[in-house]
Amino acid sequence: MADPHPSDPHPPAAVPRFPAGFLWGAATSAYQVEGAAAEDGRTPSIWDTFCRVPGRVHRGQTGDVATDHYHRYRDDVRLMAELGLTAYRFSVSWPRVRPTGRGPASQRGLDFYRRLADELLTAGITPVATLYHWDLPEELEAAGGWPERATAERFAEYAALVGEAVGDRVHRWTTLNEPWCSAFLGYGSGVHAPGRTDPVAALRAAHHLNLGHGLAVQALRAALPAGALLSVALNLHAVRPLTPSAPDRDAARRIDAVGNRVFLGPMLEGAYPKDLLDDTAGLTDWSFVRPGDPATVHQPLDWLGVNYYTPTVVSATTEGTEPARQDGHGGGQVSPWPGADRVGFHRAPGDVTAMDWAVDPSGLHELLTGMARRYPGLPLAVTENGAAYEDEVGADGAVDDPHRAAYVRAHLAAVHRAVTDGADVRGYFLWSLLDNFEWAYGYEKRFGLVHVDPRTLARTPKSSAHWYGRVARSGELLPLDGA
Ligand code: IFM
After folding, report:
1. What is the pTM of this model?
2. Measuring CA to CA, how many Å separate 378 from each of 89, 426, 432?
3. For the segment 88-102, what is each residue's pLDDT rounded down to a tens digit?
4. Does residue 6 form part of some domain?
5. How many angstroms separate the CA atoms of 407 and 392, rounded?
6. Domain that holds residue 469
7. Is the beta carbon of 431 within 6 A of some atom in ligand 1?
């Protein structure tokens, strides 16, 4: 057949296509969406307690009801199926399936996750379960929390209970979500539950989260059928020095050490980085790391989850920087960066989301290609990426959110570029399926593909959800609506 435009100097570029089998998902976490906080035997987690401390959470809001996903999960699965999503990443609530964190499992709690997995499988959606997304049973915090070794041991027992009960249905597992936040925002800056501000406790917590991960991987391998795919999801920081000066580059090295390599080192390489131990030597001798721990933490993994929102720009001094930028999560006056507390944080250039986070997809490309180079052979998935915007419901009841669709498209383009550059990326999970409880910000920040009415909890897919669904169905990076 003759070329219809033999002289066209700009033939249309091919629409980028993602690899076959790529998982197109959305993510949530138990405390942020489930509600039903006191139902079916669930006991309080550290977030139930933290929300009740005056001044900790926007307007004293709680996850008591959240989006009521516990009761509405069937509708939510139907919504995902109608949109065309192929995977759902959710977390299991520890205090729901093992009330108080120790003792026997709650059959009613476990049954919820079995029903949820069945509903997903029936709808042709792949379930991806995370065991810990920050809701430590309150009784374990009362016994010392993550700074204590026993918490890692309880976590492995809980992992075994869940694996045995749900492992016949769920094949993809993640031990911890963003352990950096659990350790350093929970025990360092105190802007997250349990709200402690002790740098040594934060470092101890980081180690016991690492240990809990390693013990949980061992427990899951024993409990799950062969072929289960195990991972961890890290909020890796794409760290950039503000200037090329040696002090700013050293600031970037410090943040990379206590932000990224504190987990990547032991989990994927079997040792804590020497520079991290040196940076924190004035605080601790790390004697809480027992002989044998590094080997326990260093378990073979089947994939690595990368969570990314915005780059981390740092300088050697805090002069001229806002204290709230210290943690990127707002409001903290105490540094969440032990051994790097003189480092200054800056907003990257460009547009910002409602979180005041700069939109810069190049950080995601950098992280994915960096992980692919550093850990060849380890498949990757983007386990969280997304944006909060001030969405408004139109007079016709529709929610038009072109900014979110543009954010997601730009980040998917970065993922596609990383794949072209050799990174083995197997899936993308948009944060979040639903507008939900955004931790210390309460319900003020909306990350959802689906709008949730704060009074009625009615769900309305936003325009970005319809576009993302078409991308999921086609496997192609389609143009934005109206583009
Ligand atoms: O809502 C959180 C999620 O729980 C963990 N990662 C970042 C999201 C947006 O702040």
Report:
1. 0.96
2. 20, 11, 25
3. 999 999 999 999 999
4. no
5. 17
6. 23-474
7. yes
